[in-house]
Amino acid sequence: MKMWREVCSLVADDYFMKRFFYGHSRFLPLHLAFAFQGPSLVSVASNATVFGHAERNCVRYLSTRNIPQKRKSLTLIVVRITSNRTFGMSRPCRNCCKFLKRTIPHARVFYTDTKGTLIEDVWLDSDHLSLSSRPRTHSERSLVDKLSVRDR
Ligand SMILES: [Zn+2]
After folding, report:
1. How far is the CA of 104 from the centre of ligand 1 (A)?
2. pTM higher than 0.90, yes or no?
3. In whole angstroms, what is the distance from residue 150 CA to residue 144 CA?
4. Distance of CA 35 from the midpoint of ligand 1 (Å)
5. Check whether domain 2-151 has CATH 3.40.140, yes or no
6. CA 14 to ligand 1 centroid distance, Å
């Protein structure tokens, strides 16, 4: 796939990658999302901002550039880049799936799996919650309960 080859060559390009590694927390996995309209790359975004997940930032950037989001010719490729510059699991989380279905309903969405293989997310039906949107664990909750009991 031509778009996938373009993504691979950009990720291998130090000059291109520098702006995403710069300022990026090394405690967060780096995700990048690439949007194509037809064969042309029209938007690239990372999760290295305060706004959150790469795929959402990428779609938001489309709207700021007045690129119609309902087109059938849109393709979104979401990748995770590991510290030794290989691809890792980047399937869109549950919240992003909802967002993508609503904002770019006709787009084809692809992600890299744990082996770095490009997979099409046909149904966008992930039930995976990202770490930041998971509810607190039971032990954290019970600690809060204990503290508030002690305060009384
Ligand atoms: Zn997400």
Report:
1. 15
2. no
3. 10
4. 16
5. yes
6. 26
